[in-house]
Amino acid sequence: MPHGDKPDSVRAALERLGISYPEKTGQAGSVGLMVTKTLVVVGDPQVTAPPGRARGAMLRAYDKQSGKEVGAVWIPAAQSGSPMTYMANGKQYIVVAVAAPGRPAELVALALP
User: Fold this and answer.
1) Beta strand 84-88 pairing with 39-43
2) Which domains does the chain possess?
């Protein structure tokens, strides 16, 4: 299963050559991940701007058995630290560190439904 959208440089090169290719080709880079009983949660190692979404990266959840992506949430920059989870007042959260050149590092906290 490729992890991540097609890098912008690859997308541009393929478009110049008139070559069509699936949007998800994966991305080079190594980031930390979080494993639960049923999921692997990992963010994109690169910032991209695919058609239909703002420039940024995605935090993705994959089913451990099938490898299928079961969810994805936009984050403002590439993942720069391993995701973690915690409970507060009966609600579960995922927190991930993100950073990019020219953008200060920050923690992004997401509440699970």
Assistant:
1) unpaired
2) 29-111 (2.40.10)
Give pLDDT tens digits for 79-97: 999 999 999 999 999 999 9
Contact, 60 vs 44, CB < 8 A? Answer: yes
pTM to 2 decimal places: 0.76
| Token duo for residue 20 | 């069509």
Contacts of 93 (CB under 8 A, 6+ apart): 85, 86, 87, 109, 110, 111, 112
Q: Which of 25, 9, 7 is nearest to 17 (CA)?
A: 9
Distance CA 93, CA 60 (A): 14
Total Cβ atoms within 10 A of residue 110: 14
* 46-80 CB burial, b ≥16 within 10 A, e <16: bbbeeeeeeebbbbbbbeeeeeeeeebeebebbbb
